[in-house]
Specification:
Layout (H helix, E strand, L loop, with lengths): L14 E5 L28 H11 L6 E5 L9 H9 L6 E6 L4 H11 L3 E5 L5 H8 L7 H10 L5 E7 L8 H10 L3 E6 L17 H8 L5 E3 L11 E5 L5 E5 L12 E4 L4 E3 L7 E3 L1 H5 L5 H9 L18 H4 L2
Parallel strand pairs: 1-2, 1-10, 2-3, 3-4, 4-5, 5-6, 6-9
Antiparallel strand pairs: 7-8, 8-9, 10-11, 11-12
Helix pairs in contact: 1-2, 2-3, 3-5
The structure holds S-adenosylmethionine and iron/sulfur cluster.
Iron/sulfur cluster (SF4) binds next to loops.
């Protein structure tokens, strides 16, 4: 057992998404039921020291990039402590955060000072009433203000993620895309995944990426673009003529990008999941708390990483909400 971490299909694993909590201060219609989910008991959740311990053992095996996610990671107290610990692991060269943005204006500078490189912020609407309806929260959240605060704090590049839902927010596609004329931001449109208990958001709500691109092309001509210099994941990027930033599509429903998938996930309770959509996971918390080396557990987890997910085969019955698996 030596050499870089590879799965059974030869893919090298260099990217880890770390969920630091399964809880959230929003209840987005596509992600969580109004009453929330059955939360993990606090004692099951890895401490920051334990998370950093997992990363420190993975880093010499090839791990280079980290994303802190949730649930909503910014509701976990003193998140900057974790960022500092991760930053001090020499092999790690990129640390990003996925957030709904609500707490970004107050936290961006602290997180940046602790060593955070960049953020991906969710933004499903630019209209105050609709933001409340989608997040199911009576909030004054202003996504433009939050993204600007992150940019001013030096978090770069700024990526905004829009989950597109037909009849709910797809009439704002062009408004979002126009933001790229004024800001060097990367606006990514994500195909809705009908997951978990969100039965009202059925396949009819999914807007395929080809249709999204066709509609964006009505504003200005759209040419393929390289996308942001850092963290080019599964999105395909384009630039509207004359724009500073880019628009992108992430297409879990209409195309798979499993062949180049180099990521694994650590759940808040310390399980390594090798595919967002499958049930393959290995418990790391028990060996970690017993002081055992984790490498054999990483390797056995990777041996089960599926070649591709089954969403397209419509085998969606068992999907867990993304907040539970570190979406
Ligand atoms: N709370 C943070 C946030 O909202 O960015 C991080 C966790 S959230 C689960 C991660 C990403 O998953 C967000 O961009 C969110 O929009 C996306 N997501 C959650 N449920 C989804 C669904 N059913 N379909 C598509 N994207 C989804
Ligand atoms: Fe919370 Fe993010 Fe899920 Fe919305 S998408 S409910 S912000 S975890």
């Amino acid at each position: 057992m030596s050499g870089p971490l590879r799965d059974a299909h030869g893919r090298e694993i260099e990217y880890l998404r770390i969920s630091v909590t399964d809880r959230c201060n929003f209840r987005c219609v596509y992600c969580m039921p109004p009453a929330g989910l059955e939360w993990l008991p606090k004692s099951d959740i890895l401490s920051y020291e334990e998370i950093a311990g997992v990363v420190a053992q993975l880093a010499p095996l090839g791990l280079r990039r980290l994303r802190i996610t949730g649930g909503e990671p910014t509701i976990r107290p003193q998140l900057e402590r974790l960022v500092e610990m991760l930053r001090s692991i020499p092999e790690i060269d990129d640390i990003s955060l996925s957030t709904n943005g609500l707490r970004l204006p107050e936290l961006a500078a602290t997180l940046r000072a602790a060593g955070l490189d960049r953020v991906n912020m969710s933004a499903d609407s630019l209209r105050p009433d609709r933001i409340k309806a989608i997040a199911r929260r009576n909030t004054d959240f202003d996504p433009i203000f939050a993204a600007t605060a992150a940019e001013r704090a030096g978090l770069s590049p700024i990526k905004l993620n829009v989950v597109v839902m037909r009849g709910i927010n797809d009439d704002e596609l062009l408004d979002f895309a126009r933001l790229t004329f004024e800001h060097d931001w990367h606006i990514r449109f994500i195909e809705l995944m009908p997951v978990g208990e969100m039965r009202e958001l059925t396949w009819e709500r999914v807007v395929p990426s080809d249709e999204i691109l066709e509609r964006l092309g009505t504003i200005a001509s759209l040419t393929p673009a390289i996308g942001p210099a850092r963290g080019n994941g599964p999105a395909r990027y384009f630039r509207l003529e004359g724009a500073l930033g880019t628009v992108g599509v992430i297409t879990p429903m209409s195309h798979t990008y499993c062949g180049s998938c180099n990521r694994v996930r650590l759940t808040a309770d310390g399980r390594l999941r090798t595919c967002l959509y499958g049930d393959e996971e290995v418990d790391l918390r028990t060996p970690l708390r017993e002081g055992l080396p984790l490498e054999p557990f990483f390797r056995s987890a990777l041996a089960t990483k599926p070649l591709e997910h089954q969403l397209l085969q419509m085998r969606v019955g068992g999907l867990r909400a993304l907040s539970q698996v570190g979406g």
